[in-house]
Amino acid sequence: MIAKIPAAYSDVFELLDRHNIRGVVVSGVAVVLHGHLRPVFDLDIVVASTPDEQNRALQALMLAGFMPSIPVPLNLLTVLRMFDQREREIDVFMKYHIPFNELWADSAQIRVGDSMVRIASLEHLLRAKRMVGRPHDLLDVEGLLAIKQSQ
Fold this sequence. Notes:
With 151 residues, the chain is of the alpha+beta class. Strands 1-2-5-4-3 form a five-stranded mixed beta sheet, with helices on both faces. Strands 6-7 form a two-stranded antiparallel sheet. The protein is 42% helix and 21% strand. The protein is globular.
């Protein structure tokens, strides 16, 4: 797996924006965009919870060259992992620890390349990272808390 930076996904952000796909970036890319620098290996995005919007997101990503890791209907999944030929990975969450409408309402918009990207709020990132609790999530919590204290 190759470490990447958020800008490595700028074409994906532009694509989602162009197709009016409602999604919120979470996990590593959101952590980095909030200011805690650490390696990023994939893009995690939570898409709106309606079947139509989930299908539109999947179709847009497939048009961009991302292929699903398993051919299963979206309504049966919590997350769908997709890959492209450039060795990029996107995890598309249909369900997440925090309901989509809450994520969307509190998300921040940040410019990456030529596109605006919605990222999970600092509070939602902290909440999700604490819930999952893997060692790298707890390191992210420490980094994000340091950012929060400096604001």
